[in-house]
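Below: protein 1.
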Amino acid sequence: MGGNPMEYSEAVLAHFRAPKNAGEFPAGTRGVLLGQAGTKKRGREIHLELKLGADGRIEGCRYRIYGCPATVALCSLLSERLPGLLPAEALTMSGLKLAAELGLPPPKRDAALLLEDALRDALKGYNMTESREAI
């Protein structure tokens, strides 16, 4: 990165140019948890979908967003990191650590906090102690 504090790293640009797992699961897909954070009026909105498998682990993550390249990159990176995790493990994900890994400029790191909010919103209704046979 150059001297511009708002310049994005190559990692951010790579995720922005070719976002991983963007979109949504087909309607009626079983085991999908939904989360949302932000609003278009405030400049960023994230809709997050987590698909749980029969074993209770996250099988996949999809997202729809309205936002800047930082928001796209964070969602793309998160969608690569979540599969295989238990929901309790997913709750420990740090948006700020993902932002640091991507080399986001400090003024854009608020997108990481919004990502955490969307993830927590998706997992809020999940009972961590309940059997997942109902999925």
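Below: protein 2.
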Amino acid sequence: MDLSKLPKLSNSPAPPPEPTLQNSSAEPNAPDIQPPSATTPSPPTPHLASYGAAELWISIGLGLFLLLLSPNTVKYVYGKLTGTMPGIFLDPTPGAAPGAKCDYINWLDMYGNFLKREMYRDMILFWSDLAVTAFALVLILDGIVMTFSRKRGVIAAMFVFTLVATLGNLFYFLKTFNDGIAIMSAVAVIVGGYIAMTQWAMLSNLRAIAASKSARA
């Protein structure tokens, strides 16, 4: 038989066997390899931003500095609470002790005759001092609350107080705009708005964290 007339076999290698998910028979006790199951990733935990030591220092320091610049509201409230005369102005009463203080001024005419007495609470200065004092308290309390508290009720109360103080400064700024720019109230509106937004972000994160914990429970 002439073998040269037979068709030649191809020298190309045979295709490799398809891989199986089971182990070979050489390892009968080995567990079967299963494809990884698709798992739903858990939602990320919201980031809870808070103040650090530097923010606490700046916030409280600026608040105390403003109270030193404008102490009349604190003096007035302290005098009313203790039943003493608030020491805001020099006492204009004839014969008063040198350096004695009071919470009113006397208006005189050009000849030195008495016209009227104006109390501190009736002056525009009272509202100016009150606006600055409220902003100073916002700075001090915000630094403490945002650093140490994680309770939504406390932060919500601080948020409301910040809004009231900021809107009060805005009202005073607009009310006295024709008489000149109230610089401190303008600063209070800008910074107070930023503080309120920071507090709102903290409240939103706390709500998200509470919702995430409830979903995992």
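The beta strands are 89-90, 101-102, 104-108, 114-119.
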